[in-house]
Amino acid sequence: MVSTTLRPTVHCLLALVVCLNPLGAVPVADAQVGCDSCCVPQTCYRLQCQTVYEEKQVTCMKTVCETVYDEQQVVRRTPVFETESRERRFTVMRPVRETTMQERRYTVQRPVTETQYRDASYNRVRNVIETSCREETYTVQRPVWETSCREEVYTVQRPVVQTVQRQQVRTVMRPVTTMVARQVDQGAYVNQVSVVPGQESRARLRWLGAQQSVNPVTGVVQTVRPGLAWVSNTTPPQQVVQQVWRPNIVTVQQPVTQMVPQQVVENVPVQVTQMVAEQRVRQVPVRVCKMVTEQRVRRVPVQTCRQVVERVEQQVPVQVCRMVTEERVCQVPVTTCRMVAEERVEPYQVRVCRMVERTETVRVPRVVRKQVPVTYTYRVPRTVTVRVPVQPACSTCAQVVDADAATKFASRDASTDASAG
Question: Mapped to the 3 state alphabet, what secondary structure does 106-121 carry?
């Protein structure tokens, strides 16, 4: 006997087996249903699976936790603080100062100032300037100018202009037109259809039915079992119309004009200037300078400087300080400090802690588990296979096919529930 909790799982498995079992398909004889009076016989049908959900109620036990509090007696020790007065004795050293007079002898250096004279005489040199005259003889060159005339012959270049015919060659650029064959592209844009391949998406886990494949080596037809497999979808390719340039090369004769150089000879009148030499004579006055030597005498003043030494007497007073030693006596107060021991008493406060026991009642939580029945409803999926005609049929044939399919699936579901129960 199958339990209540496992019955939905068994129903799902049986529905899956019925859907995938090739023996559970409708026979060919059943699929070909026809009526001689209303429609053409041998109508084709296809099987279509539909999922039906059935609601079922299940009662199960659910664990519920509850918190229960128990009272217990607990003894606690609580600290209590109290203040006490105490005395402490200690010894203090008190300073006692005493002052006495003492004699001290010391030596003092007293300055004594005396005036002395020192000889600061020096020699002073004085310059004495004397002026005298002396005769000086010197030679002088005196210029003497004389004027005379002389003939000078010189050459003069006189210009003579003549006109001469000269041939001149010059280059002239003349246009020359020639025909040149060139390749010209006389193409046009043409619509061309191109195929854009589809894009492959990420692989997903899907259910694949039974498939048949042919082994290319042996030629044997193999049947692949249905099941879950990683399948990647590829979008269908798209056709895109694009304009493409279609070339058309044609040879064309094109005129080309070029400038060709050509030499031309011309007679050009040219004026030529020639220089003709002529001899000429002229009178040129010439002034000649002669230097004549003369002796002259002049009196020149001369200053002479001589030094005279004089003695200057000078006495300078000088202050001289010398130190004289003296002994002195003075009274100096001396303070002496001595320590005297004293005993003192100081009161102070002390905080004392003592433990006091107290009894309290405490509630201790405790978790209690118990089983509670719970009823819930769940839906069980069941797969039903229905025959759908491929070609349209009349209403009478459709009612016969639907009634036949409903009878067969009802009997199959009854046998499945009986086996599961």
Answer: EEEEEEEEEEEEEECC
Specify the 3-state DSSP secondary structure of 408. Answer: helix
CB 287 within 8 A of CB 149: no
Classified as helix, coil or strand, 33 is: strand
Residue 32, CA distances (Å) to 24, 41, 353 in order: 17, 7, 107
For residue 319, which of 110, 108, 118, 121 has the smallest C-alpha distance? 118
Give the count of alpha carbons within 13 A of 134, CB side only: 6
What's the CA gap between 33 and 408, in Å, rounded? 15
Distant-in-sequence, close-in-space partners of 216: CB < 8 Å, separation ≥ 6: none
17 φ/ψ sector (left φ>0, alpha ψ -120 to 50, else beta): alpha
Sign of the CA dihedral 337, 338, 340, 346?
Answer: positive
**Total residue count of the chain as it appears in this document:** 421
- Is the overall model pTM greater than 0.70, yes or no? no
Among candidate residues 62, 63, 75, 71, the one with its CA nearest the CA of residue 366: 71
Q: Which amino acid is at 90?
A: F
Q: How far apart are the first and last CA of the chain?
A: 6
Alpha-carbon torsion, ordered 343, 347, 348, 354, to 10 deg: 110
Per-residue pLDDT of the chain (421 residues; tens, 9 = 90+): 444 444 545 555 555 544 444 333 333 333 333 444 444 445 677 888 888 888 888 888 888 888 888 888 888 888 888 888 888 888 988 888 888 888 888 888 888 888 888 888 888 888 888 888 888 888 888 888 888 888 888 888 888 888 888 888 888 888 888 888 888 888 888 888 888 887 877 888 888 888 888 777 787 888 888 888 888 777 888 888 888 888 888 888 888 888 888 888 888 888 888 888 888 888 888 888 888 888 888 888 888 888 888 888 888 888 888 888 888 888 888 888 888 888 888 888 888 888 888 888 888 888 888 888 888 888 888 888 888 887 544 444 445 445 555 455 455 554 444 444 4
Q: Is 130 exposed, middle or buried (0-12, 13-18, 19+ CB in 10 A)?
A: exposed
Contact 162, 271 (CB under 8 A): yes
Give the integer Cα–Cα distance in Å for 7 and 2: 6
Question: Which residue, 353, 375, 329, 349, is CA-closest to 108?
Answer: 329
Look at residue 40 and give its three-state secondary structure.
coil
